[in-house]
What we know:
Blueprint: H1 21-50, H2 65-90, H3 94-123, H4 137-167, H5 177-203
Amino acid sequence: xxxxxxxxxxxxxxxxxxxxxxxxxxxxxxxxxxxxxxxxxxxxxxxxxxxxxxxxxxxxxxxxxxxxxxxxxxxxxxxxxxxxxxxxxxxxxxxxxxxxxxxxxxxxxxxxxxxxxxxxxxxxxxxxxxxxxxxxxxxxxxxxxxxxxxxxxxxxxxxxxxxxxxxxxxxxxxxxxxxxxxxxxxxxxxxxxxxxxxxxxxxxx
Length: 205
């Protein structure tokens, strides 16, 4: 009876655990998004440093802090509902998954709608002159930051709509957890970015 043995001088093979392409792609994508928003924040502080006079300038009536804080809490809460959706699909509970995603979409949509209403209100303020991106450097910075973030939130909502569409298929289930996790990572990211942005725009004067 013979036994298999490793050839002399040949190192034994070990299993190699590689990250999935989806995981690597997600990390690279979120890293690029961090760099993008980091550049926006750097531009904001640079403009603030080189601008003479008060910051924000006189007449720049930013949204009410209480109202902005309310919708910030709603957006942060949506991270919790999205995480519940991840846990639901991990248990192959499609009914609970769809329910939690719908809750997340409602909270995120409320945030975007409020931002649109705030923009409309700002344009009608400042004694009839309007506070827009063309008003001054602060206006450009404010609307650029909030605009790009709003676009990212909208992108996250569209991704959730795709997940809900796929959830209508009988083939959708626990095996689709990686795709759901990718959307959740993105959603958590835009929530964290907004918390930082909210602090900068409303409390760092």
